[in-house]
């Protein structure tokens, strides 16, 4: 319910309650009574919010009963607080809800788990694990620095690897790492990309490291492996093609047993620009052994989309007047 219509409904109630006049009449009460009315209005608003929460349906079971025979897909998503965070996570969680045998590993860049992410995970109906690690100061992107200067989410992805290896404790969701010998695949899915549900079935049977093209990345329509006779023979990219693995984070998945068999395999926070993916993959595989998926890398099933940063000019103006949007409403 938009707050403006709430106001309209609540004011008369308060006016009546305070004995100030008949419903609908303008209130010319003293500052003292106005403060009291404002106090009541806030209480009523809180009550409506709580009522709305109570009335919300319980999280739907996301998936039909899961065939245990399928290898599980562990989707690792680093995330950090910003205006569009909830929108991005809701969109991603609802894509992931379409995928059977999926386990979402969400790693917050924060000191402690936030109510927004905890609540969203609990309501998602997905199998999940909630981890938290704050990016160290020196690695943090500074105000105004462009995103490519230092890779984001490195500590968070490494924390997920540590959890998969049984070396880290979760703050929410399923705390136990996958059981020994479990079949599975690990995919690093940032919260701002767009994923086709088909992509997950392409990666499910990964034996070592599987690869596919990524749309709208690297200043190109797509970037991706070049395949001949079912083998990766090169990479279509405009930028530093001599990198060992010129792949985007969204363009590969790793089998869980392979990852667990190489305890040293992790992302290097000091890797030069564009070499983060290579810093992990060099521990795992030779480029010629990459497994091409998505019809020999001819289909784009994931897109490097970016959400525009919302402008908050009016919000700031209203806040200066003490009339900003209710901070009690999660956005
Ligand atoms: C990929 O290419 C190989 C070799 O040309 C072919 O045998 C195979 O069927 C292709 N796979 C798909 C899914 O198109």
UniProtKB/TrEMBL annotation:
Domain of life: Eukaryota
Positions of UDP-alpha-D-glucuronate binding: 78-80, 109, 152, 157, 190-192, 304-306
Glycosylated residues (UniProt): 296
Pathway: Protein modification; protein glycosylation
Site annotation Interaction with galactose moiety of substrate glycoprotein: residues: 223, 314
Keywords linked to the UniProt accession: Disulfide bond, Glycoprotein, Golgi apparatus, Manganese, Membrane, Metal-binding, Signal-anchor, Transferase, Transmembrane, Transmembrane helix
Needed co-factor(s): Mn(2+)
Classification via InterPro entries: Glyco_trans_43, Nucleotide-diphossugar_trans
Annotated region (Disordered), positions in chain: 311-331
Active site residues of this protein: 277
Homology family: Belongs to the glycosyltransferase 43 family.
Protein's recorded name: Galactosylgalactosylxylosylprotein 3-beta-glucuronosyltransferase
Annotated organism of origin: Phascolarctos cinereus (Koala)
């Amino acid at each position: 319910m938009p707050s403006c219509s709430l106001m309209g409904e609540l004011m008369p109630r308060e006016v009546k309650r305070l004995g100030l006049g008949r419903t609908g009449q303008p209130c010319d009460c003293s500052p003292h009574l106005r403060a009291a009315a404002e106090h009541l209005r806030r209480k009523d608003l809180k009550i409506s919010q709580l009522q709305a929460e109570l009335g919300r349906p319980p999280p739907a079971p996301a998936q039909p009963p899961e065939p245990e025979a399928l290898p599980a897909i562990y989707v690792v998503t680093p995330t950090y607080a910003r205006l569009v965070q909830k929108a991005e996570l809701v969109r991603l969680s609802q894509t992931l809800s379409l995928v059977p045998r999926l386990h979402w590993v969400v790693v917050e860049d924060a000191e402690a788990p936030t109510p927004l992410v905890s609540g969203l995970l609990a309501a998602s109906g997905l199998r999940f694990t909630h981890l938290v690690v704050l990016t160290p100061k020196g690695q943090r992107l500074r105000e105004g620095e462009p995103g490519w200067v230092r890779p984001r989410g490195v500590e968070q992805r490494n924390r997920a690897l540590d959890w998969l290896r049984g070396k880290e404790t979760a703050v929410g969701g399923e705390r136990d790492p996958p059981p020994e010998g479990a079949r599975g695949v690990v995919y690093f899915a940032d919260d701002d990309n767009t994923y086709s549900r088909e992509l997950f079935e392409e990666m499910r049977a990964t034996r070592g490291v599987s690869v596919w093209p990524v749309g709208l990345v690297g200043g190109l329509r797509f970037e991706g492996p070049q395949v001949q006779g079912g083998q990766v023979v090169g990479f279509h990219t405009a930028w530093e093609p001599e990198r060992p693995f010129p792949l985007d984070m969204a363009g590969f998945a790793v089998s869980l047993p392979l990852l667990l068999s190489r305890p040293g395999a992790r992302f290097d926070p000091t890797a030069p620009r564009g070499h983060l993916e290579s810093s992990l993959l060099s521990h795992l595989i030779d480029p010629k052994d990459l497994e091409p998926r998505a019809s020999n890398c001819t289909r784009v099933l994931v897109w490097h989309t970016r959400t525009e940063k919302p402008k908050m000019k009016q919000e700031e103006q209203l806040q200066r007047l003490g009339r900003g949007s209710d901070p009690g409403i999660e956005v």
